[in-house]
């Protein structure tokens, strides 16, 4: 009898795990289909998003370009001047030091961590199994006042200070539309290490057959896009490190 109970318990655990995995896969499949389908998503080689970011009540014009090969830049317009705060040529990532007004290369570990995120294009869930990612159904919860399916996405771990750190993001999918309305991720490093970063996603609209959220946030600051362009025309110069000006003695 004892052995039978153990067998039944093992069967129930296995069945429960199988159901959860299948449910997560169905949710993600429905999501990808809802926003345009895997085929259309894989045909995207780049995106250009234009809008503004709200920094303590001040709206700052913003332009974000991301390419499938890892090239990208984040450009703001401040006091009539366009400044690329963050950009990558596909191999290295650079940031603009606003204090010294100089371009600096990002430290190697941070650069690799961010580069892996850049190359996860156009969507982390497209071919997630081939990427070595895992998904798990984490139950139903209410987020932003909406009933959601909560799905845990586990990607390859970060390497921080020589040690592996879990790379986990929770997605809250609207139970009716199957689009994510919020993500949660623990900050892995820096001054905010350990804090949970919540990113809202809303105002989905269609662009050339693919749906994008036009309202989100960046580092906790509200961000609204007014235009999204699929497969924009770009040149290598758009992502290159600017030549340093020679200072007069």
Walk me through the structure.
With 249 residues, this protein is an alpha+beta fold. It is built from 3 helices and 14 strands. The chain has helices spanning 2-34, 38-42, 108-118; strands at residues 46-55, 58-67, 71-78, 81-89, 93-97, 102-105, 134-143, 146-160, 163-174, 180-186, 196-200, 202-207, 210-218, 221-230. It has a 9-stranded antiparallel β-sheet with strand order 6-5-4-3-2-1-14-13-12, with helices on one face. It has a 5-stranded antiparallel β-sheet with strand order 7-8-9-10-11. Strand 12 and strand 13 form a beta hairpin. The radius of gyration is 21 Å and the shape is globular. The termini are far apart.
List the helices and strands and how they pair.
Blueprint: H1 2-34, H2 38-42, E1 46-55, E2 58-67, E3 71-78, E4 81-89, E5 93-97, E6 102-105, H3 108-118, E7 134-143, E8 146-160, E9 163-174, E10 180-186, E11 196-200, E12 202-207, E13 210-218, E14 221-230
Antiparallel strand pairs: 1-2, 1-14, 2-3, 3-4, 4-5, 5-6, 7-8, 8-9, 9-10, 10-11, 12-13, 13-14
């Amino acid at each position: 009898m004892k052995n039978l109970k153990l067998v039944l318990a093992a069967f129930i655990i296995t069945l429960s795990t199988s159901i959860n995995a299948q449910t997560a896969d169905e949710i993600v499949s429905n999501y990808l289909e809802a926003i345009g389908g895997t085929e259309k998503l894989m045909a995207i080689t780049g995106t250009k998003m234009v809008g503004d970011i709200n920094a303590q009540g001040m709206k700052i014009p913003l332009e974000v370009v991301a390419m499938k090969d890892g090239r990208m830049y984040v450009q703001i317009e401040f006091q009539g001047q366009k400044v690329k705060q963050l950009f990558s040529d596909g191999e290295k990532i650079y940031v603009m030091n606003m204090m010294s007004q100089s371009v600096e290369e990002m430290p190697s570990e941070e650069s690799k961590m961010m580069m892996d995120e850049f190359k996860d294009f156009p969507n982390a869930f497209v071919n997630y199994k081939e990427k070595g990612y895992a998904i798990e159904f984490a139950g139903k919860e209410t987020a932003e006042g909406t009933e959601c399916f909560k799905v845990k996405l586990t990607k390859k771990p970060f390497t921080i200070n020589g040690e592996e750190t879990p790379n986990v993001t929770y997605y809250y999918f609207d139970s009716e539309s199957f689009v994510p309305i919020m993500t949660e991720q623990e900050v892995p490093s820096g001054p905010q290490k350990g804090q949970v970063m919540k990113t809202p996603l809303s105002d989905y609209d269609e662009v050339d057959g693919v749906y994008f959220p036009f309202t989100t946030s960046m580092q906790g600051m509200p961000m609204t896009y007014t235009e999204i362009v699929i497969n924009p025309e770009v040149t290598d110069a758009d992502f290159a490190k600017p030549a340093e000006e020679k200072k007069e003695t």
